[in-house]
Amino acid sequence: MIFSWLRNRRRRRVLAQPFPKEWEELLQRRVRHYRYLPPSHQQRVRQIVPVMVAEKEWAAAGDFKVTPEMAVTIAGQAAVMASGFDEPYFFDRLHTVVIHPKTIRFAPEQTSRNPNLPGGWLSGIAWHRGPVVLSWGEIRTELTGRSPGRNVILHEFAHYLDGLDGPADGKPPMSSKESERRWYAVTEAEYLRLVGSARRGEATLLDHYGASNRAEFFAVSTEYFFELPHQLYERHPDLYAVLQEFYHLDPRQWLPRIESPRQDDAGDGGDFQRFRARRQRRSDVAQLKAVQAMAPGDALYALAFDHLQRGRPADAIRLFDQLLEVDPRDEESLAHRALAYLRLQRLAEARRDCEAALAIDPQDAEALWARGAVALQEGRTLEAVNDLSEAVDASPQNIEIRRARASAWMVAGWPQKAVADLTEALNIEPHDAELLAERARAYQALNRTADANRDIARAKLLEPELAWPA
């Protein structure tokens, strides 16, 4: 109680001071939204900014120096987010904002000591009950307007809001149960659509980074709600509506429309398709360099496995043949050639390779999987179940083996066991539409119609163009 009283007293003193003229000019120049806000919302921003600047610790990384301009710019963007709330909101649980001069990257010794530190290059990061960390270089780039839809300050402060009621999960605190239900219904459907589009490499308005998880979806959606509100409203009106309800703001009413060259704003997706092509070329070059650095046998195996993964079993068989000419007891090549034969329905050859691989290593998961799949196609269901169960024991994280055993359980007349396998597979890969459809069929066999309908609905959101059972 005494601490709240002291805090409120200190804030009254801060707010009693005239708002600095240079800060007003800075907000007008640096915070694009501010100059378009209605007067009442501008006043709310002028209440929030001085309190945040005074109360937060504005820390710099290394020898970098934090200036008042940086603090006011960041506080101003955060204040715009909060300007629609009924009472002035000062982000009380946030104590520290750390500013890096350029892109953020934690040293390997730091990430090895602290598993909560992410690897790679970052423009910002926010921890549950921890600091918000921002790259000033990224902020300055975004202030130029060259990255429509991107705003790292809004993104990371959205993570902060998301974490107010527990670890960030894409659902910030809601005002009522009804709002919570509406939020979940809309955002879950929109998230799954984005996941499906990202997996297919389709052009979308929302950045595919939002498909990483639900917390990132909320943060990315917040960026577009404030930065490209007109486009978001036109293409995702339901998502816009729940964000409008949460933030108590409607940026369409005051922010001028700007066009975005990103993703599906390029008409036929031309810019995005060119971006995808460049990214694929970089990936192919990196893969080629990795293969060239391998020993010849390892390189040939990597290429054969890549053919198998990409749905080119005949090409895979040709390369596995070369490997097995050199070493006929290479059980990995035997097992994977068996899987390639299986995809071509060459069952006798698949069975022969399985037996040869299992004679060398009786626990080879791929060989057991292939032999079980052959047995299932030949009508030897119990043999298939036994082989596939051994394969699951040997490789419990392999969702394809679990999928194969689920098919065997269905043929054997045990749909409950199929549900268990498919559920385990979906725990590993929750956005596989075909796994959802297969579990729906198992649920139907158990007369669990509501569960089946739920899975089909999710599958349709992920892959709307495919023909799903009614």
TrEMBL record:
Keywords: TPR repeat. It comes from the Bacteria. TPR repeats lie at residues 297-330, 365-398. Pfam families: Peptidase_M90, TPR_16. GO terms for cellular component: cytosol. CDD domains: Peptidase_M90_mtfA. GO terms for molecular function: aminopeptidase activity; metallopeptidase activity. PROSITE patterns: TPR (PS50005). InterPro entries: MetalloPept_cat_dom_sf, MtfA_fam, MtfA_N, TPR-like_helical_dom_sf, TPR_rpt. This is Protein MtfA.
